[in-house]
Amino acid sequence: MNVDFDILLEQAQAAAEQAYAPYSGYRVGAALLCGDGSVVTGCNVENASLSLTICAERNAVFNAVNQGKREFLALAIYVDSDEIFPPCGACRQVLAEFNPRLPILYANRLGSIFSDLETLLPQAFTLSEQ
Ligand SMILES: [Zn+2]
Fold first, then answer.
1. pLDDT value at position 129?
2. Residues 29-51, mean pLDDT to the nearest whole number
């Protein structure tokens, strides 16, 4: 399946508008292209007890799994900032559970960087024998 990252990024950008980020100020959206062609989004949801904050990427994955989806083909992440961030380590590990080679585009107001999970998280933790 060809991935239109422009459209996926637009959906991530729209998801960022839903972010609840009163502490960091970083509004983040993620758009996950699923194996059935659907797109599931997530935004970051912060909490006064900061460790309870959940990232947009994991929110998208958990939302997709909750809808019965297990196959993920691509991910776009948008942060409404001039700074740019790849997914955090926790999100990388969660994404690797479903597709250790997931193509990932992460972007901000100024541009984007294309990568993949194999590059961002080599030798991910797994319980299965390699
Ligand atoms: Zn994260």
1. 67
2. 97
Which runs of consecutive H residues, i.e. helices, occur in the chain?
5-16, 56-66, 89-96, 117-120
What is the whole-number distance in angstroms between the Cα of residue 85 and the centre of ligand 1?
A: 10
Query: Which residue of the set 57, 71, 83, 118 is catalytic?
Result: 57
Euclidean distance between the first and the last CA atom of the chain, given in angstroms as a whole number = 27
**Separation of 26 CA from ligand 1 center, angstroms?**
12
Q: What is the CATH number of domain 5-72+80-115?
A: 3.40.140.10
Q: Is 71 a catalytic residue?
A: no
70-117 pLDDT, tens digit per residue, is 999 999 999 999 999 999 999 999 999 999 999 999 999 999 999 999
